[in-house]
Structure formats: C-alpha cells, structure tokens
Amino acid sequence: MSISSDLNNPREIPEEDPFQESTESARPPWPPESCIPGLFEAVAAQYPQRTAVTAEDGSLTYRQLHEKSDRLAGELLDSGVKSGTVVGLYTHRGTDLLTGLLGILKAGAAYLPLDPGYPAQRVRWALSDAQCAVVVASADLRAALGGLNVRTVATDRERPPGGPRPDLPQVRATDPAYVIHTSGSTGEPKGVQIEHHSVVRLFTATRPWFGFTEHDVWTLFHSAAFDFSVWEIWGALLYGGRLVVVPAQTARSPAAFHRLLRDEGVTVLSQTPGAFRRLAAADAGAAPLSALRTVVLGGESLDPAGLRPWLERYGDEGPRVVNMYGITEATVHASYRPILRADLDRRGPSPIGVPLPGLTFHLRDATGRAVPDGTPGELHIEGPSLARGYLGRPALTAERFAEGPPRTYRTGDRVVRLADGEYGYLGRVDDQIKLRGYRIEPGEIETLLTRHPAVDAAVVRPHNYGEDDVRLVAYVTCATDHRDGPAALVAELRELAADALPPHMRPSACVVLAALPLTANGKVDRATLPAPGPIPTDGPGGTADDGPAGPEGSTAARIFGIWRAVLDVEHVTPDADFFDLGGTSLSLLRMFERVNAEFGTDLDVTVLIDGATVGSLSSHVDAVRKPEGDV
Questions:
Q1: Does one domain contain both 472 and 521?
Q2: pTM for this predicted structure
Q3: Is the residue at 581 inside a domain?
C-alpha cells in the first residue's frame, strides 16, 4: 500500500489492515520537513491493528490512538487552541497520556507535560510561566487548577467515534513540539522549547546504530515531564512498535519491574545508571530477560564497573548496553557509546563516546578558547537539534545559545576529549547537581528556602551517605532566631519544600548554622560545610520526643532497629514515613533486604505503596511470616 507523501498533513486510516512485516532497512529516510503527527499517521496507516500502547487502564491500537487523538485535537481547536501555542497536559500514566500528547500535537500546539506527583503550586506556576490558556487534564486533577484563568479539556472523557474528521492545521517541522521545564539557577525553572524537526532528527541520526522496527516493545518508565520520555514514547510510536506504560508502583519495585519486562517481552529499555543498577540486582536472581536487545543509559554519570554483574551474566552483545550523554536543550541525547566488558576495569571519566551525526562538540576554557585534547573544558554543542531557546526568557536564551555562526549551546558540563577520539564526562563547571537523572540547580531550592522570614541565607549541596545513596542537604543561617527553636524551623522548611518542589528536589536534611563558611574571596566554601549527621525526623513523620516504635523484641521494634541503621537516624516512630526520614529508592531496597533476612520473608517493596511506615511494614511482616519454630 502507498503511504501519504505529505507527512505534515495526516489523512484517514484505511479500514484494511495489510499488517506488513516490513523491516526498518526497507523504509525510506524521513524527509527533513517531517513532523511528529505526520510520521505517526504514516505508521498508523501501515499498522492500524497493531497495539500501540499497553497500560494499566487498557490498550489502544494504532487506529484507535489515531482516531481518539483526532477527536481530542478537534475539541482543542474548538476551545481556542492556535498553532504554535502551548497546551498543558495534566493526566495520569495511561492511555490518556498518549492520546493527550498526540491530540495536542495534531492541533498544532506544543505540549507542556505536568507530573501529577508534583505539588499543585509548582503545576500552577508552570502553567502561568508557559501562558497556557488550555489544559488537557484528568477529571480528578482538574480541581488543582481552580482559580486559574485556563480552560480545561477532559482527556478521560469518552468522545463517540464517527462523524467527519476535524479540519486539522498543517504542522511544520519548525513548530514547537513540547516545552519541558528544567531547574533554574535564578530561582525559577526555565521552559525549554523543542521543535518537531529536532525530535525527528534524534531518531534519524540514531537509526543506523539501533535499527528500531515495528517489532520492538518499549517501556515508558520515566515521567513525561522528564525529557527521557521523549525518547521512549516516540521511539516506539514513530516506528510502529508497542509502548508499555509502566505503572508508578511497578517503577518503584525493581523486582516487579523485572517481571513486567519479562512478561511484556520488552526489547528496548531506557534507564538512568542508578535505576539500572537496582534492576540488575533484581535480575541476578531471576529468569533472564531473553527478549531484551537494547539498554539505553542516560541522565547521569556512568561508572562502567557498576555494570559488572549484568555484563558478566549477559555479555556485551545481547542485549547491548549503550551510554548516551544528553541534555534537554540538545533534544534528549547528544552522544553514543556502547559499553563493553573491556570497560569494566576502566578508570577515569564517564565514557560518553562520540557525538550523534549532525552534532559537533567543542571544548572551551573559561575565556571561550578551544582546549587541546586531553585537557578538560566546558562542552559547547553545535548542530540543528538544539532547542529554540527558553520560553519567555530572551536574555537567558542569548546567554546560553550563541547564534554564531555556527549556533551553539553552552552546556555547563565539564568534558574531556580522550586519546582515542571519544569524549569523557567529568561533571559540572558550576554548582548544578545531577541526581537520579534530574538536573537540579541548587539556586532554585536556595531561593525557596530564603523566602522563609527567619532564613537569612541558604546553601544546598549533595551529600554521599553510602554507596549509590546521594541526598540533598540544605544549610541555612537565620536573620533572627526562630521563636520555637531550630527544630521547628527545620520542620517548617520541610513543609515549604514539600508544598513547592517535586520530590527529587526536596532536601533530605537541613542543618542550621550560625554562619556559612567562606573562601578567601568571600564565596561560600561548600567543601568545608559540615557533614549533616543523622537525618532529623522532625516534621510530618513525628519528632524526636515521640515514643518507641514498639515493645522490645516485637516486629515493630526489630524493624525500627533496621530503619535506624539504614537511614542513619536516631529516632523513628510507627507512623514516620521512610522517605520523610531521608530514605531513597536504593536505601528502601537495602532496608527490605534486611527485613526479609531478619524475618525469613519474601516481601516486595510494593506492599508499602500506600504508606512506607514501620507500622504498615510490621503488619505485612506479621501477616506472612511463620511463627518461630514452624517449618
């Protein structure tokens, strides 16, 4: 069958289903003027009956997803959406998320993904910053938008099929496709605008390396508000593959996630190195993932030695493990580096390989001059995949994007060109932190903390509590003494952070100092800030004056002891939340390993999906373990 040559002007999907078993090598290259809706339409025309999306709430074929997103696009146009505008997308992880994305793009607008797990205050700020007049939202989330001057369109409302197809606008390759906010050093996040052609180029450039086809099964593991999701979503849907939306509770449990990968026959997996190490630990004692053929790592620095258990089990060909350096402003991924067994004993910078075709890396010193090979420098990226700029921030755009020629983006990342011509990542040249795949500007958190009337100054830095256990710690000084003392101040700062910041940006500990240490030139000497010590428990989880977790020798008391050791805290109460005490996903796994070993159980972390407290865990342990002496 013939596919429409006008990839920017979608048409009706034919009723017949050829179900062609084409291969990626047989497909012609995508024209440079292609856009996301046009490419999706071509795939949907070729494979209308293939499953496009599998999620907790059901599944959609390509025809169903195409038709549902058409109807949503028509409703958006009736709601006043214009080409080039930004439309908020505030919905849960499921088929509606994909309908919303495509519907917004087909209406000619750019989508602004809003994570339902973010505080309402941050969601409302992002909508205001992007000047969104329309929001596609789930019914139960729309209440959080009350008082905003926005029109909401339900993504979870049934729209009867049939009737004439909406008259959709022609989408151009240079139109913005999405806006994703990244942490801002000035105290506010900044919206990065990415155009359609940049997303298309990402897959055109990587096609020879990966050979993605309609037979691939991808996972959507990451939040749509994290740009790794762009690679996961469109990598599946632009090739005719199947996208498996990972439920939030499954994503928190490496064992449950491993089962999903095996049961769904996933072939392409994207992970941050930290998350993948936890998955590899779960894999060690489970049936192998025989369908998996490609693992893409990104979002944070990689130490190849951490992949030893995985590579010793699977080798370095099946599946291939690829490390890809990336940055939101360069459209997700900017480099490519397969990881081999020979890299396990490698020492030095994180290997990020070579730039994607069409991109050029320049390494420069603080004065902007090129540095020789072997000398670290700040990475400047040149190429057509760069973002349009920061939404509504012309001065910041001019500061970071040099119009050239050539046009380049100053990343702030410290990189070195190695003797073999590849590149190695060394870290940041500024104070920015990369934690669990997220870029975090300490300045944004510090600005928030200084809004408290008692706080005079604030500094946020990462602190290493152990292997793969890095947390944010805030240090504050007071302009005036808090009326109820430092403990009350810390509790109020925690509430302030919880109301305004997403979970990955909330400090796990807060230290009140008389003064911040300074260097000779008057700057904060971050290297000499004191270690935070045990994580305080004041706040939502209770205070240090609360009673013990339970009678000595009881299940609760034994779990209480394990929590104190894993979290390095002195006081834990039955209703104290594990994460409020400073816990992380990795420390949660370590805690569960110790609890299961202590009681001879085989509990999974998903039992705490409704509350990670000593009291809740104790009840689960008591419900499944055998009495002492039973065989």
A1: yes
A2: 0.75
A3: yes
